[in-house]
């Protein structure tokens, strides 16, 4: 039974009750009125049941809506959090892509400012930063090449200046030595002849050696010569020293046959030998030995001047090799010190690795000259 039929039945019962009431038929009127009341009560109960059912249905639906709403809120929160994290990571990556090349450029600039030009910049981008990195690398290479050119130019200028100083020094010594040298040689020749006529042959030979030594030193000043000529000049010097020290000194000279015509600056050997005599022979009563050995090894001529003297202190060796000739002794016969010879050799051959000094305390010193054949042969 639906509500329409129940309402119609209620209305019909009410109309019948009213009709019988007008006809004064109280029994039927009361019957139909009670029927109407029953129907009304039934309608009310049914309505309450329907409303209660609807409320229960609505309550379940409402709970589902609340639950879905909570899920939606949680989903929205996680979605917002995910979007925020994604945005943050994207921003961090974007920022890092921009700042990392700049940091790399800054680090490279610091390396260059500290003098390191070897570190290149590798930036894999396709924007202005990549262009800036390429320009920076090119600038680094240009600066490195420029500094190299400046260093080479400075070295050449320094060597040229040293060469000029040596040339002036040689010219001055030439001028000083050319003060009437013929008079000196003529005088020595007269003394040699007089000694020979007086049967003083040893004195005559000594005077001849002095004359030949002076002639060689004056003639060879500032020019190049051969090892053969250097040895001849050195032999005159050794004759004089042998007379001076007699049995206190022993000289030995060994020269390989293929070394005689090798060219080198004049007065190269004599200053080293004279230095050995002054420091290794002269101060000691027992004297000592000096050995000169010249031989060809590979692409170089090796000249060794060795003595068995007290040796050279390490600091003095380093000072000589580095070019700080403090208190350098200049030879009596040539006026040329060891450092002067080393400078001339380095300029003549265009190399710094020319000399090596091996010295052991109380055992002796060996000076080794390493001369390139291509530049002197």
UniProtKB/TrEMBL annotation:
Which residue ranges does the record assign to the Histidine kinase domain? Answer: 198-375
Q: Give residue ranges for domain HAMP.
A: 96-148
What is this protein identified as? Answer: Histidine kinase
Which GO molecular function terms does the record list? ATP binding; phosphorelay sensor kinase activity
A Pfam family cross-referenced in the UniProt record is His_kinase
- Species of origin reads Neobacillus novalis
Tagged with keyword Chloroplast? no
What transmembrane ranges does the database entry give?
Answer: 73-92
Which lineage do the record's taxonomy fields give for this organism? Bacteria, Bacillati, Bacillota, Bacilli, Bacillales
A cellular component term from Gene Ontology for this protein is: plasma membrane
Q: Which UniProt keywords apply?
A: ATP-binding, Cell membrane, Kinase, Membrane, Nucleotide-binding, Transferase, Transmembrane, Transmembrane helix
The lineage's top-level taxon is Bacteria
Its subcellular locations are:
Cell membrane
